[in-house]
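Pinned message: reference record for Probable nicotinate-nucleotide adenylyltransferase
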Amino acid sequence: MSKTTSLTPIINQAIALYGGTFDPIHYGHLRPVEALSRLIGLKEVVWLPNNIPPHRPQPEASSQQRLEMVRLAIQPFRSFRVDTREIEKAAPSYSIETLSDFRKEIGNKQSLAFIIGQDSLLSINTWHKWEELLDVCHLLVCARPGYQTTFSSKEMQSWLEQHQTTQYEDIHRLPAGKVFLADTPLYNISATDIRARHKAGLNCHDLLPTAVEDYINQQQLYL
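Predicted structure (tokens):
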């Protein structure tokens, strides 16, 4: 029995989704997710650029430009791929709907996770149908600089403690239902700052991949 259990993470290796506007994608996205993937042993990370974000202003770059920047950024990573379902959607993309679609495609036994930042976790109770998220996936939470690690609400802190695991093996062993707070590196990088730097004529070599910056310059974005 112990031998069968030890093989579970390999047999049911988790697939993780990571969504955002990526306007533009930068090392603050890439490096924590890369570290998380190595830490947990994810089978695949699916990047989901969205067309119409429900909780923030419409991005400056077009949907196709942001999609191309994601493709350029993840090209060196064998286990990363991009999915276009949200970028092609003409309505706001809600995480629970996208995750439910993936769950239908992969079946009920495959481990499915959703990568978010600590800032998103602390506001997750404002999300559309947030109570249903753990029915379809795990939550993998990347650390974010400047954000607390606990909820101010006792009810939400109780929810977290009920579902939290400190064992990454649980993410592979179970198809959904757990919250894992990952000790990922902190990068104080924001797309807002990158856009401001470009408007000021400053380079961003240390903030995002060269291929992405070259594309930004070629497309004359954020001027």
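Pinned by admin. Summary line: Residues 27-40 form the longest helix (14 residues).
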